[in-house]
């Protein structure tokens, strides 16, 4: 079924907007801007994730500049290893969309939990973008590993090749 989305009197929905962003960027991840979702370990049960802009299947989300999100980690168990995932969780029912940052808690046997991934433009209702994997050794946070791609600013791929009367020719190098 053909859908015209840029004609007069067309209504552009959030879903169409996200679809266009998904096609243009071609990936999910965190943009090179602000703190880029930098984390800080506050204690063995709390991390802070600082500001940044990120995209999950074409849906832009941000932690407002100069702010952070507090991420609570459940207590570990002495003598065990656990992996928790911090994810960008996007969910839709086809009409309403929600997004949050959440922790997927692993088991105490050291198994890494699964992400829910799916193409939300073709019927899937959930997509999770991995932000960080937290390794707990007993009750202590042993490491935090980045799980997202960093998306560079477009100007890093552009170079001006000529300037003419009222025009600038730009070349993109995406390799």
Attribute tags:
4-stranded antiparallel sheet; 1 helix; 175 residues; mainly beta; 5-stranded mixed sheet
Give an overview of the whole structure.
This protein is mainly β. Helices cover about 5% and strands about 50% of the residues. Strands 1, 2, 3, 4 and 9 form a five-stranded mixed β-sheet that branches. The radius of gyration is 20 Å and the shape is globular. It starts with 13 loop residues before the first helix and ends with a strand. The mean pLDDT is about 90.
Distance between the termini: 34 Å
What is the gyration radius calculated from CA atoms?
20 Å
The total count of strands amounts to 11
The arrangement of helices and strands along the chain is HEEEEEEEEEEE
Q: Main sheet?
A: 5 strands, mixed
Q: Total helix count?
A: 1
Question: Beta-sheet strand percentage?
Answer: over 45%
The share of residues in helices is under 10%
> What number is the mean pLDDT?
88
What are the segments in which pLDDT stays under 50 over at least 5 consecutive residues? Answer: none
Shape: globular
Structural class: mainly beta
The quaternary structure here is single chain
Q: Topology, pairings included?
A:
Layout: H1 14-25, E1 29-31, E2 39-43, E3 46-56, E4 59-72, E5 81-92, E6 97-104, E7 126-137, E8 140-146, E9 150-151, E10 158-164, E11 167-172
Parallel strand pairs: 1-9
Antiparallel strand pairs: 1-3, 2-3, 3-4, 5-6, 5-7, 7-8, 10-11
């Amino acid at each position: 079924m053909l859908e015209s989305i840029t004609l007069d009197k067309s209504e552009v929905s959030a879903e169409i907007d996200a679809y266009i962003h998904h096609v243009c960027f071609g990936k999910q991840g965190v943009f090179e801007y602000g703190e880029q979702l930098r984390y800080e370990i506050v204690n063995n049960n709390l991390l802070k994730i600082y500001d940044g802009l990120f995209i999950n299947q074409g849906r832009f989300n941000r932690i407002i500049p100069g702010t952070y999100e507090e991420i609570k980690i459940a207590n570990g168990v002495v003598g065990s290893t656990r992996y928790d995932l911090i994810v960008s969780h996007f969910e839709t029912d086809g009409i309403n969309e929600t997004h949050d940052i959440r922790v997927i808690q692993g088991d105490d046997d050291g198994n890494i939990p699964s992400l829910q991934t799916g193409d939300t433009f073709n019927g899937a209702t959930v997509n999770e973008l991995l932000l960080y994997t937290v390794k707990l050794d007993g009750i202590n946070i042993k490491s935090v590993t980045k799980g997202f791609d960093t998306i560079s600013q477009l100007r890093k791929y552009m170079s001006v090749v000529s300037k003419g009367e009222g025009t600038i020719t730009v070349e993109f190098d995406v390799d």
